[in-house]
Amino acid sequence: MQRTYVKDIQIGNVFLQGFVHEIRDLAKIKFLLLRDMTGIVQCITKDSKLFKKFSDIGLESVVSIKGKAKKANVKFEEARKDIEIEIDSIELLSKAENTPIQVFEKDKTIKTDLSKRLDYRCLDLRKRRNFSIMKIQSKLLEGMQIYLNSNGFLQVFTPCLMGSSSEGGAEVFKLKYYEKGEAFLRQDPQLHRQLTILGGLEKIYDLGPSWRAESSHTTRHLCEHRTIAAEFAFIKDQEEVMKVQEKLVAEAIKHVINTCKEELNLLDISLKVPKLPFPRLTFKEAKKAVNSKHKDHELSTEEEKKLGEYVRKKYKANFFFIHSFPFKLKPFYVFHNKNEAGSVDLYFNNIELSSGGQREHRYAIILKNLKEKKLDPKKIEWFTQFFKWGAPSHGGFAIGIERLIHSILSLSHVKEAALFPRDPERLLP
Length: 429
Description:
By secondary structure, the chain is α+β, with helices and mostly antiparallel strands. Helix content is about 30%, strand content about 30%. It has helices spanning about 50-55, 115-120, 120-125, 130-150, 190-200, 240-260, 260-265, 285-290, 300-315, 365-370, 380-385, 400-410, and strands at about 10-25, 30-35, 40-45, 60-70, 85-95, 155, 160, 175, 180-185, 205-210, 225-235, 280, 320-325, 335, 340-350, 350-360, 395-400.
């Protein structure tokens, strides 16, 4: 008989496989809650011949069950309410020892510390809550790819190993690369995406990991994170970058709402498609809104918090853009217009989700920018030389996936949005 998943069970004979979520004994009847990736179903038996088998099965053991699906009489909170399985036979496929953390937490007041949960992340992922987070992340990315693919973007794969550090080298992971000496794990392969645009692939997106070797211990930082990044040619200004980005986010969230109703309910999240367009604030307007005394400095953490509150109150919005930064605050590759940079940052409340904007495509201005930033043109010539041979105006952005999930699901820590998170202290499992 072919395996049936919990969500697909209908009245009749079934063959189930999964983990033992819970066992309950009610005198002359035994209940087993079986869990697979699609849900939980209650399985029952009144056959005393099967009782001994139940005594040999521990929680989180892997079993297969053959039986008959019928309308449920006794209903447990975690399981499907409409159906139950009358067990004909049960086979123990893998017996589990006592687990170091509880997968099914009977006492909701007892919370396992996040650090310990991550020590046993494989077991932690078995919890329905964490499965829901990972499914929502998958569907969010699926929605983004659907939007980009349907709008003519091509998916590409930029390198993870870099021969030079594009952002200064202070916060990169170094490694030995054959006889050539040092190589670096990428912080963001934006420069390679730009070169791809110059290569004639006018609309591209890139999905993959990036690394930052900074010793940050906040609820929003990881040493390894994933981004989805888009780059596209023949733009007029940074406004076009904001339009593509907000549509991408809105369509992705709409896709999550349509495909993850059960998971959102389990997490008690009421997700709504954000209204377009997102509010747009210039850097000067943002600084003024929080009464900043340092008008030419980047926003501080406290200022970001105040700005998020300001936008929610004034615009009734969580997502918003900050654009038109002072050029001195931004890298050499951003579009330079009268000491103003064509940069765009996307925020959700007080959390920066992405950076991007219009790139500088004029070769002479790029060289001028390098001089202004006191950078050695020779060290970046591998990138800049291609602008001599024709470059269309272009721009793009890179959205942090874990940060976006962290934000829209109101998670306590961005680590909860990472499958196996990496931070300054954690490299295993």
